[in-house]
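We give its fold:
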Amino acid sequence: MMENFKLSGLDQISIWRNESPIEAFKSKIFYEDCVQATQIEGLKADLDFVMELKQPRGPRCLYGLLGVKIRFANERILKIKVGDGQAETRLYVGSMLDKIEIPYYGFPEGVAESVLYTLQKEMRESQPMFAGSMEVCFGAHGQISSNPYVFKLLSRALPKVLFMESLSSDLLTELFLSLR
């Protein structure tokens, strides 16, 4: 299910649950770690979850797409795996960025480690937590419009939005403003 939201100003976010607008990207390097699951609640079914964010900045914008495959398991660990997306050359047609520049699959160089670190931190603080695996394998970026900041912002927001039962533009605006 896909939902579009207008945030403050001209900011936009699209969120997909149980589907992805793009295929998983191919990676050269994977970064992995585990987080102890303190409460095993929340998610009880496998899920694909993707967020695409565009924040206009004059004639350009900040842009990023970040998504995960989540697989639930009855264990006390959450395994987080982040691919770098650097084995990709495909263009992502149909993104929010299409009219501004050409978006590519994957992440800009050097972003995957930051995504892993941020997700680890946020998942430790997130309650309820789930056990199983979270693989970051959906991503898109623009060579001009994307930077580490936008992917850190999406990584911080992902665990919070993931557990929200219902979404609204006001709720998401408040969340993203608090994360800046």
